[in-house]
Automatic annotation (TrEMBL):
Residue stretches in coiled coil: 149-176, 315-342, 452-479
CDD domains (UniProt xref): HisKA (cd00082), PAS (cd00130)
Protein name, as recorded: histidine kinase
UniProt entry keywords in alphabetical sequence: Coiled coil, Kinase, Phosphoprotein, Transferase
Amino acid sequence: MLHTAAPAQGSHSDQSIPYQQLLEAQSGLILLISPDLTVIGASEAYLREAFVSREQIMGKHLSDVFPDNPNTPGSSPSATLRASIERAIARRERETIELIQYDIQHPDRPGEFMERFWSASNTPIYNSQGQLVCILYEAKNISEDLKTKAQLQQSREKEQVALAQAEQQRLRMERLFDQAPAACAMLEGPTFIYRVINSSYQQLFPGRELLNLPLFEALPELRNQAVYDIIHEVYRTGETYEGKEVLIPVARYADQPAEDIYWNFIYQALLDAEGNVNGILIFALDVTDFVIARQQVESSAASLQTMNLGLEEVIRRRTHELAQAQAEAERQSKRLESLFMMAPAAICILNGPDLVYELVNPAYAALFPERELFGKPILEVLPEIENNPVYQTFLEVYRTGRTHEEKERCIPFVGQGGELEDRYFRYIQQARYNEQNQIDGVVVFALEVTEQVQARKAVEASEQQLQLANKEYDIANQQLIYINKDLDNFIYTASHDLKAPISNIEMLMSELLLELPEESLSRQEVKSILHMMQGSVSRLKRTIASLTDISRLKKEDLNKQERVQVADVVREVALDLEKVITEYDAHLETDIANCSTKAFSERNLRSIVYNLLSNGIKYSHPQRKPHIKVSCRQEDGQHVLEVQDNGLGLSATQQGKLFTMFKRFHDHVEGSGVGLYMVKRIVENAGGSIQVKSEVGTGTTFSVYFSE
């Protein structure tokens, strides 16, 4: 049948067309099968793909040529193929098999099979009398395509796991950055623009605007000082500069005279992806109290030596001890390997309920030089503290989350001689939170003050002799007694959800968008991940903005009081919220005829009214339209501003935590959790108070009491 054919009328050749040769020369994977499923033809491409010769398959039954793999019981691809052929014959049309696993015999290993996946079709061929002549079987090997898809899926899953791990690490580093007791700031570009500052740095300048301003514009008094040349040299050369007890006069508040402040600081160059300097990283610590105390001790030592020779040995030993302490402090504040290793304070992180050492910086390790700390529970390393109150406060901080601080705690430790030695420490124990806002460890910031305490006690022991000295002698003795005044600039612990260097995150996102191919950017899962990352950046920006607002709140704002019309402020805020009122279909009722003129900061009053009104609208009950009423009244000689809503309401437990920074009870609307904290702080700084009455499902009433 395949070798002969009737000659075509009027053809240029009277030779028959070689159909068999045409079939064999086809580039596709083709078999020609008789109605009784005998192989009667095959393309060369099919023979190569199936590793068989024409002699092995011609004239043989299809199931004999391509048997089922006995190692895949429960699967019969030959039966599937026969059923497809039968459907094609019954319907008299082409039958398609989208996917079939039909393993082929290994050409070099008898009895073994090679895994293969195919897509195929069966087309019945009829003659001019409508009789079935044969079946045209066409196949395509899709094994490699399936493997590629599987590998792609595995790659996507690994990428998602890596992104999740990177996000977790980033959040942890953000927390540690803001917990650092040293003041840290990141300056960008040759004009040194403040891009990131932590809480400790902002506390050094509570009355100055810093963020997004150039260094010498935010602190212009630094222009004519040595730091001007130093920081430019670091930016030019990329070499780190470390300053010790450098006197740098600077004003903590704007428009006030500069104060003489002594600093320990490090200027370190920041590099871009090409290794070029693009910014400066600052680590700073105010050591003014320490320097002044040491200077006072040195001055007092000279005076006491002339008045009482009996104290000469005490003064000499004290001077020597102070020199040793200073030398130790200088050694510990050398440039360290990372951000937290540079902190001039002992820092450790204890993980889990067993308080296992997870991170120990060199300053902390130096407190116990003979002991191995990392990776061990604290009681295994320091068994002496088991019955000391310090261990109980560790457990209490881990259980409750409440920060604990000690200014001078005696903790006996076994010394090198094997005997207990009284050692004194100043420390802060603070709970660490994971991504689910659950306590998973304790962060410790510590400073050993044994030498200072011993020196103070030595001076106190000589008090009876010093009573005979003159007035100058008494003053010097008092200066020695109080040389250990608190240093309050180590840590700002108000926030458990710590902020991040957001500019770096945005840069990484931009780089990621540039690196990803268009094909990846069009995939839904990539869009979802990018959307989540952009949402995280937006939330971080709002948090930083909220912290900036909080830092501006201070009692000095009372000096900016002016006569303010309360009713005018309420009306202006209502106009500002007009879009939100329309969006929520809210009704605002005002009874402000009795709102008198107040001596108050207009900006702060607007902030109070805006936060209370916007909260009343946003946290409305889903089953009714928001209704907010604003009124004024007099109570016990005080002016009272009252804002009442019919929203979700709060339980008694929630009311007790309502004014806590970053505390939020409803997550269905955006917010940073600092609005009510700011309101309470503004009111109390002005000598007033705020009260709340609320019932779940009914609504909430805020009453703001202004002092006269």
